[in-house]
Design a protein that fits this description.
The structure holds 2 protein chains of 2 kinds.
Chain A lengths: L44 H6 L3 E15 L2 E14 L9 E9 L2 E2 L1 E13 L2 E6 L6 E6 L2 E7 L8 E10 L8 E2 L6 E11 L2 E8 L6 E17 L7 E20 L17 E9 L7 E2 L4 H10 L15 H8 L5 H15 L1 E2 L11 H7 L1 E2 L1 H14 L3 E7 L19 E8 L2 E5 L18 E5 L6 E4 L5 E13 L2 E9 L2 H14 L1 H11 L4 E9 L9 E8 L6 E4 L21 E2 L3 E11 L4 E5 L4 E5 L4 E10 L2 E10 L3 E2 L4 H15 L3 E5 L2
Parallel strand pairs in A: 1-11, 17-18, 24-30
Antiparallel strand pairs in A: 1-2, 2-9, 3-4, 3-8, 5-6, 5-9, 7-8, 10-15, 11-14, 12-15, 13-14, 15-16, 19-20, 19-22, 20-21, 22-23, 24-25, 25-27, 26-27, 28-36, 29-35, 30-34, 31-36, 32-33, 33-34
Chain B lengths: L2 H16 L16 H4 L4 E14 L2 E12 L10 E5 L3 E11 L5 E4 L6 E4 L6 E2 L2 E5 L8 E11 L16 E13 L4 E6 L6 E4 L3 E11 L17 E6 L1 E4 L2 E4 L3 H11 L8 H11 L4 H15 L1 E2 L2 E2 L10 H7 L1 E2 L1 H14 L5 E5 L19 E6 L6 E3 L19 E4 L7 E3 L9 E10 L5 E10 L4 H9 L2 H11 L5 E11 L5 E10 L4 E3 L2 E4 L21 E3 L3 E10 L4 E5 L4 E5 L2 E10 L2 E10 L2 E3 L4 H15 L3 E5 L1
The chains are: A mainly beta, B alpha+beta.
Chain lengths: ~675, ~625
Amino acid sequence: MHHIKSVAFPMHLLFGCLITFTAFSQDKDKVKFGRIDPKDFEKTKFELDTSAHAVVIADVGTSEFEMERDHFEIRFKRTCRVKIVDKNGYDAATVEIPLFKSGQSEERLLNLKASSYNLENGKVVETRMESKSVFTDQLKKDYLEKKFTLPAVKEGTIIEYSYLVSSPFYFNLQPWAFQGEYPCLWSEYSVTIPEYFDFIFLRQGYQQFTMNGEKSYDRKTYNISYTNNGGAGPTEHGSASASVTTSHWITKDVPALKEQEFTTTLRNHISKIEFQLATIRYPDSPLKPVLSTWPKLFEELDKDEDFGLTLDKNNGYLGDVVDGLTAGLTSDTAKARRIYNYVRQNFACTSHSGLYLTKSLKTVFSSHNGNETDINLLLVAMLRRAKLDAAPVILSTRQHGVTLEMYPLVNRFNYTIASVNTTTGTYFMDASYFYLGFGRLDGSCYNGHARIMTPEIPAISFEPDSLVEKKSTYVMLMGENGAIKGSFQQMPTYFESCKMRAQIKDKGKEEYFKSISRDFTSETVISNTAIEDLDDYEVPVKVKYDFEMKPEADGMLYINPMFSEARRENPFKSQERLYPVEMPFTVDDVYTMSLTIPEGYEVEELPKPAIVKLNETDGVFQYLIQKNENQIQLRSRVKLERATFAPAEYNLLRDFFDMVVKKQAEQIVLKKTK
Amino acid sequence: MSLFNNKLSGILICILYLQPAFAGDPDYSVAAIPAALKEKAHAIKRMEELVVNVSSLSEKKIVHRYAITVLDASGDKYAKVIDYYDKLRSIRSISGTLYDAAGKQLKRLKQSDVEDLSGVGSSLMSDDRIKRHSFYYTVYPYTVEYEIEVKENNTFTFPEWIPQEDEPFSVEKSKLVVNVPLDFTLRYQSFHYKGEPVITTDKDTRTYSWEVKDLTVLPDERFVTDWHRRTAAVLLAPADFEIQRYKGSMNTWEEMSRFMYTLNQGRDQLPEAVKQTVHQLTDGLSREEKITKLYHYLQQHTRYVSVQLGIGGWQTFDANYVAANGYGDCKALSNYMCSLLKEAGLPAFCVLVYGGDNEITFEEGFPSNQFNHVIACVPGTKDTTWLECTSTTLPAGYLSSFTANRPVLIASEKGSKLVHTPAYSMEQNLQLRRITANINDNGDMLLNAVTHYTGMQQDDLQGRLHQLSREKQLEILKKDLSLPSYDVNKYECKELAEQLPAIDEQLEISAHNYASISGKRMFIVPNLLNKTTIRPDADVPRLSDILLRSSYRDADTVLITVPEGYMPESVPQSVSLKSTFGNYSCQATVTGNVITYIRNVSIKEGLYPATSFPELASFYGAMYKADRAKLVLVRN
């Protein structure tokens, strides 16, 4: 079992509990649509310092609640002013506004204005966008995009647009990102919430705030329709005066954040604020909790026809297949394994994201495809049909961002896997990847906190630190008739094995070994090739082959004892790191070589042994080499204990791999005896 | 969902599963496939009938029926349907059936499973939408059968028939049938097709049919011509056609040229203010100066934004639209540029071209719609000036590898023949580099590279400089350099404003552990930055002719200073290769503590016969090896 560990680098989550009253400064009116000053065209520090291709001069948004006939709508207003610095920044002049729809309810785009401003002879010249330049792209049935690009855009143009989105989905208070693709001089967001709604504020990022959720209070009159007694009573109309609270955030001079290697998702790291509706309290009505508790979240999902409802019900159609698969088996684990392999092999995954069923389990069963939730819930249903103790597990994949143990926020989850308890233990399964063996998960699932969907809904954790990718290689070398002959045996890591299986499935073994022979720098012939366990997806494969190379130079023999197994490049290429390094797993890579010195040769030079530690205990690189009579033995091991490293540790990590690359490039030199 | 429904559909499914193939149904069992077709194939087209029914000058229906057996996961992509529709093309129906390896029917396509998606893609807007379907089946082998019916209200475009869809894809049988009214002239050109189509005539229809059987897989080859030149293919075109009430003909390029002119006629009216600007900018200047001035004006005041609406994307937005918005697609910007030039008294024309760095095997002898892009040209007394109007950065008169060196069609009132855009020669496409490097006792290297790129060798870099952020540029640079571990200390590019564009690049890199040191020896690969990655497999028989798309020359001079006290122990031998395709030489020498490495490569563009492939393979093979040769130094 996995245990919950504290996250090494917690998101900077703060909650709206700072109750201070601050009079808004004059800055609020800083961005009035259409008021462009010739000074705005002057160069900002970002253009001077960081070669930014566009600079957001100001991005200002507000969200407020208004009544629309019989329901609340959120009015989200935004005004954004951007300077296009050079041609590489032209993309910033094209804007896409997503709008959603659900049944009769839909979001509406109102009051869209957009203009470009150019400085001509010291004067600001405005070019307005015509309304017919706004296009509607219906991407899906319930999702469209309004798109426009601004007219008269040149290098140095300032563009500006403002709009209002009125949304009936009042539980979706718009989040706000203070950081994006371009640096931002001024980002400001305020939300005004009537007392009827209690939202949790979730903030993250590493930036300083000029205003950080400061609150101000006011009263506002709403015309409200509501029903008493939890919906059982008659509908009432009337106006009510409610206290409203405005929270306010401002950041200044926020640099752009760029994605570097080994990142789960930038979404975990950019400066932003999000909201989650916790309770609703309409006048004279009981408090209605919206934010769930974990057990409630379980209940809801369990009863949801797009999740748990049909896991145990109406699934007689599974009977024959499940009976057939489990016939003759007595052990629970054997039954689970058989059912898992059946689902894995017979169902195609159309998408590896989505927490809900895209169709009924029965349709999944008959159509042989679905997203990962479709497939894994079908797996759970089949396991339960076989009377096994199985349950779904929900999680968020690495690219989708973190989930919070503290808050049962269902929309933070995007993925379902399956679990089963048997006499031999608990197994987690994901049948949506054809190459994953029983009890194996894809690396994308190792994203910390997850929940098992049983009534107690226990928390578990899939930590990348706990996922060790082991690899071992053994090479034997000797000289024969002027050639170097060797035998190679390797057990690659599990994920490498998965990749190989896919590659071999696609191109065949012959092509695979051809690519291996090409990896040698000198001309090499490969023979006696074999791959073991190619079809046992639960374990890594084993690769074996013999090779023979003809050394070129007369007199001297230069041999890199690690051949193509040497790490040739440092994986950490960037010079600096602004947020944590998040590797998907830890590594333990052992390479052993033994060389029988060919007859007629003697050792001229050997690499020096070395041991390098990373932070004393976080990792070690051993490069041990010695000579005994006519044998040379080498053992190289790269082992990391952690998968996540702080920005402050970045240089250590980079230097560590520099050392690995350097040592593994070293050569053994043999010369002809006289 | 009610219990009743569940039960009912359960029963239906059982029936479908148990249903045997009807007598007379096609046999899609895998056992029926000839062994030769399965060899190295991921998918096999079992049957295909592409039927084109031209009912009038303005309408045709296309019925495409085919079955594909997928042998393994790599073949899944051929079993998917992705088809587009727009105002000129509607998809009337899609039906499909899934069969198992024994040829038993498993499932039929449900209309609700056909996805309907936006086809706008990277454009700001277009009329295109997409229908997509897949059975997502994973028990191999399996067979899909589809029938797709399409109606097109034009006879301007015709489908092409290329039964073999890819290299690892074989074909059992395939048929193309075209029915046209007796007064409709169908034109065609076939490739790798023996004989002529069967033509039959009844009272009001003429029928053409082509058929192929048993096409085996093709090897995956590099340096190849277009796919339609490598396998059985038939291209179709009309003589006379109609598209959205515009009538035209394309028996000759001249006719097509006239049609394209007509389609966009009268869309070149400039607003008064722009006319004045043109005169202010150009009055009294020479032809060359006028072109340069106006091209710069275009580059500063417009940008490329794709809006593809109406007449299948063939009719342009007018000059007014571009003037007002400051943007347009290739047609709109070229038309606008021509309007500016005409206002300045220079006749200018829009030019149709197939743009792309690859895939440019153009069928000059077969007038038809083979274009996807528009540029502008200004005829001169000596030379024609060519202008790529979607670029805000190219020098006036330079066409990049996207449109250079290929046949193009000028849209003109009188009609024009095909003409050729300029080809850039080996001496115009240069990469000249000089590197000085210092390696210290740890094997760390400080490298200074000055590179001069010209012509098509600067196209990619030029594009990156203007389209990507500096971070992305550095990222690409880091991917291109295969050094173990390094930092870029300095990276500066200077574009030289010349008729033939050139870029001077300065690069300073600290490369950690570039030289590997074992005890008293130092191992150095003296080719620091320019190693070929091409290594053709000489063992495989070559089928396709060899196409080298451009001529170029690289020259590298590398001076590496190593610490005092090292003597050469092993120095790579000089290599000098002369081949039909070009020449290569490299030479490393050590003088004192300085290594001098000189490398020259020149490649000659051309279409070479398949039989010369062993020579190509050994040429590149030797180059690959020489580029990676190590120099060994030993400390006294």
